[in-house]
């Protein structure tokens, strides 16, 4: 099995799912998080007032018939004391969607669609942009894996991550959310980190700072992934002793990485200062972390949204992948052992640990590039000539079973057979074998009337 063929298979299936649903025709793409990300662009580029992202909320309200308060809540908008509004979502997704937004705006103006930031060209462009970033992330991950494993092993690892995890849902049906973009940033951070420790060069150091900065600007909690470049390669006591000297020899490159990362993240502070007059803004006023009561067991094992329940491949990788990872990619082991508990603690300390409507635990899509390494180690160890070659058949069977289960439950989620929240054991048993409907392609909607005045 060739890794290039598997890559294109995943891309083809992602496109098939996206165009089977065509969510932009029902106007669903921007009614929640996706609209909050976009509000930066519509307010700044279309309505020429960065402090009034509620302009998009007004258009959303015309589509959903919500109250003004609910339409603002959908987009995560809050009123500021100076009369402006700010969204709780960071700036990073708006930057990543900028070229797609520009293309959609040009298309809307040319074809007569409302150039208001909400009509279907903008929604389809946001979905296609998320899909494109997800595919780029898989391609970067493939390049990383090929540095450590044979191509056949890389193929199985790509199939596992691309088809056997909830990455597949967030790269297709929910591609307008932030997770496919974060997958790309984290895969790129991992690749640049590995290359820098092999051969310290300015371009790899710049990549570390840039991609970590973009990840943090997209989701603030991604700052914990700084542990990847800090702990990469610490596979022995000698490596720990030599690390300060290595950093000292390349202090200029580290300063470059730090400057780039800080420069990217600073865009958020400048924006907050512009719209509110303050450098810091509590954007999540009614939501917070509860570090005293992390819901780690519920987050991993609950039927409501347990990561190991809906993405059992993660459990397989974490239980069987660490010993062979020590042999295959020892540089990654310490980084994974330090990062994983930190990510799980941070993720499940959020008061809404199930993260609303969605499939499996969506914030953990960011860690899949790193988990691809122990997954590849399992595949390599059970391949002919590996230390566990006798387990080749069972290992491949379990991996295929995880892929089939993920695609089946993802299909159920996309077609609302499996709810995105409030799942109980009884409901799960009742609907596990229920066949989702195959929705026929929707026809292109008629040209809508011009929108009402924004304000």
Give the helix level as a range of percent: 55-70%
Q: How many alpha or pi helices?
A: 21
- Please tell me how large the radius of gyration is: 22 Å
Overall pLDDT metric: 89
Q: N-to-C terminal Cα separation, in Å?
A: 57 Å
Count of strand segments: 2
Which term fits the overall shape?
Answer: globular
Q: Give helix and strand order, one letter per element, not per position.
A: HHHHEEHHHHHHHHHHHHHHHHH
Measured by DSSP, the beta-strand proportion falls in under 5%
Structure classification: mainly alpha
Widest sheet: strand order?
Answer: 1-2
Low-confidence stretches: 440-455
Question: What can be said about the biggest beta sheet?
Answer: 2 strands, antiparallel
Helix and strand topology:
Layout: H1 3-21, H2 33-46, H3 54-64, H4 68-74, E1 77-79, E2 85-87, H5 92-111, H6 120-145, H7 151-163, H8 167-170, H9 179-198, H10 202-218, H11 227-231, H12 237-249, H13 251-276, H14 296-301, H15 307-310, H16 312-320, H17 322-328, H18 330-347, H19 368-381, H20 392-414, H21 425-431
Antiparallel strand pairs: 1-2
Helix pairs in contact: 1-6, 1-7, 2-3, 2-5, 3-4, 5-6, 6-7, 6-9, 6-19, 7-19, 9-10, 10-13, 16-19, 17-18, 17-19
């Amino acid at each position: 099995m060739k890794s290039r063929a598997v890559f294109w298979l995943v891309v083809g299936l992602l496109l098939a799912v996206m165009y089977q649903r065509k969510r932009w025709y029902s106007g669903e793409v921007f009614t929640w998080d996706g609209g909050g990300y976009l509000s930066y662009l519509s307010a700044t580029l279309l309505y020429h007032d960065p402090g009034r992202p509620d302009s998009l909320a007004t258009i959303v309200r015309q589509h959903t018939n919500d109250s003004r308060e609910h339409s603002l809540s959908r987009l995560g908008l809050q009123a500021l004391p100076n009369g402006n509004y700010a969204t709780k979502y960071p700036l990073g997704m708006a930057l990543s969607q900028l070229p797609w937004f520009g293309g959609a705006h040009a298309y809307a103006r040319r074809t007569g669609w409302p150039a208001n930031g909400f009509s279907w060209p903008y929604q389809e462009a946001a979905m296609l942009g998320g899909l494109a970033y997800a595919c780029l992330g898989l391609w970067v991950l493939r390049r990383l894996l090929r540095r450590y494993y044979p191509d056949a092993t890389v193929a199985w690892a790509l199939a596992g991550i691309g088809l056997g995890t909830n990455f597949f849902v967030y790269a297709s049906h929910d591609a307008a959310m932030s997770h496919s973009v974060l997958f790309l940033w984290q895969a790129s951070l991992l690749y640049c980190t590995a290359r820098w420790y092999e051969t310290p060069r300015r371009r790899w150091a710049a990549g570390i700072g840039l991609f970590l900065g973009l990840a943090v600007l997209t989701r603030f909690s991604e700052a914990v992934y700084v542990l990847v470049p800090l702990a990469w390669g610490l596979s022995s006591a000698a490596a720990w002793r030599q690390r300060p000297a290595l950093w000292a020899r390349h202090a200029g490159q580290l300063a470059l990485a730090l400057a780039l990362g800080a420069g990217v993240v600073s865009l958020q502070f400048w924006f907050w200062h512009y719209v509110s007059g303050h450098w810091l803004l509590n954007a999540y006023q009614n939501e917070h972390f509860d570090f005293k009561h992390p819901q780690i067991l519920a987050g991993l094992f609950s039927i409501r949204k347990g990561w190991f329940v809906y993405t059992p491949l993660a459990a397989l990788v974490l239980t069987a992948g660490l010993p062979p990872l020590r042999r295959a990619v020892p540089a990654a082991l310490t980084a994974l052992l330090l990062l994983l508990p930190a990510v799980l603690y941070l993720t499940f300390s959020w008061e809404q640990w199930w993260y609303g409507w969605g499939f499996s635990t969506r914030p953990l899509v960011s860690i899949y590039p790193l988990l691809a390494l122990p997954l590849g180690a399992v595949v390599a160890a059970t391949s002919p000539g590996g230390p566990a070659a006798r387990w080749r058949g069972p290992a491949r069977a379990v991996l295929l079973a995880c892929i089939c289960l993920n695609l089946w439950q993802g299909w159920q989620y996309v077609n609302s057979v499996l709810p995105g929240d409030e799942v109980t054991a009884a409901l799960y048993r009742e609907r596990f074998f229920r066949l989702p409907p195959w929705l026929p392609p929707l026809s292109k909607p008629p040209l809508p009337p011009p929108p009402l005045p924004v304000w």
